[in-house]
Amino acid sequence: MAEVVVSTKKKNKDNLLLSRFEVGKLLGHGTFAKVYFAKNIKTNEGVAIKIIDKEKILKGGLVAHIKREISILRRVRHPNIVQLFEVMATKTKIYFVMEYVRGGELFNKVAKGRLKEEAARKYFQQLISAVGFCHARGVYHRDLKPENLLLDENGDLKVSDFGLSAVSDQIRQDGLFHTFCGTPAYVAPEVLARKGYDGAKVDLWSCGVVLFVLTAGYLPFHDQNIMAMYKKIYKGIFRCPKWFSSGLSLLCTRLLDTNPETRISIPEIMENRWFKKGFKQIKFYFEDDKICTSVDDISTPDLNQDDIESVSSVSESDSELEVKRRNASLPRPASLNAFDIISFSAGFDLSGLFEEKGDEARFVSSAPVSEIVSKLEEIAEVVSFKVRRKDCRVSLEGWKEGVKGPLTIAAEIFELTPSLVVVELKKKAGDNKEYEQFCNSELKPALHKLMMKYESAAPSSSSSKINSSDDIPQTDTDS
Questions:
Q1: 0.90 exceeded by the pTM?
Q2: Mean pLDDT confidence for 354-363
Q3: Which listed residue (53, 143, 391, 471) is catalytic?
């Protein structure tokens, strides 16, 4: 997709979407939606906007499908997956505001000829990183192919189009999926058998076809007659070209194993010698609700009891000096207006309509901002979490790679009155059980005194959690 240059002269009001985005060139279209390039008129940031016709999805009975796609896109936030920034709606349209990927489809590169093994390996490593991330969150793409793999301006891969994706909740009692879907040349043999299939194994078959196409320049299973092609897929009839290295040939054979039980798994791929060459695990974190990649090598710490005691053995005078230093450098927290305070009620808060909020809580304190920040940093140091601080926002990032990635907790401080602040805590990534355990054993005990400072002055204070809704919001404007 070539970048669209939008004129900086007088803006055409007819092209402004909801007074925020200047709509440009049509990038693509399907049965129910069109995708346009657009620019945020405030930030000048380029985005892709998918515009869905509500009437068509209502007639097609696809409301649940759209909601599921939104839920999936909010769940799989990864550097190698196209990001959904926000969802808006009017009476007739739904708008997905998404990351604009400038480099176009990986398919366009392959169409010019096969890739060198090193280049193909890099894309395959990024593909497996993204797919493994999805599977750990119970999401299965089910339509992986070069046309759905985009490249950004840095040449990094981005998985797109989760329209056919499924989640663990859709698995039947036999533990399998039964929906026949996917692109013919990339579909797994067990899907053709229509006896139920494992979503993870089906994705890995498609990854195998993608790897073969990248390095061979043609499909492993191909025939002008689609039924003849299905027969080849079902029997697993293919041959690796002579320019494949032995390691590549072996990996393709393991990926394109017609028996899903013996087909290679993601943990096995991660240990594969061909795959591991030059592979670097991606580290990333969230800032201002956007993904930021990190090159830091987060190694597992080796703390003993003496180490933990030494962390908390700072003298009182040193601690006071540190607090004073922070007081001088910390800006004033953002003030809460009446609408912010009203939104504290679960019935009024609309911020979670289209995203998985996870666990979230707030508490009120009369403690200085610097003391709250210091306490959060102290908690992080004790458990060896990484701390990222920006103004009155603190992010605590774990090092342990759980099923759903490292635990990440964000804390933001707002001014309620000149002497009172609200501290909002959110789980940004990681497992819910791990988060609950961390809150109960570390966060709550350590922050209890800060809460008490306000509770003694105003006993009626309490923390609140936010519940999300599945309804589609509407603005008063129409497209």
A1: no
A2: 59
A3: 143
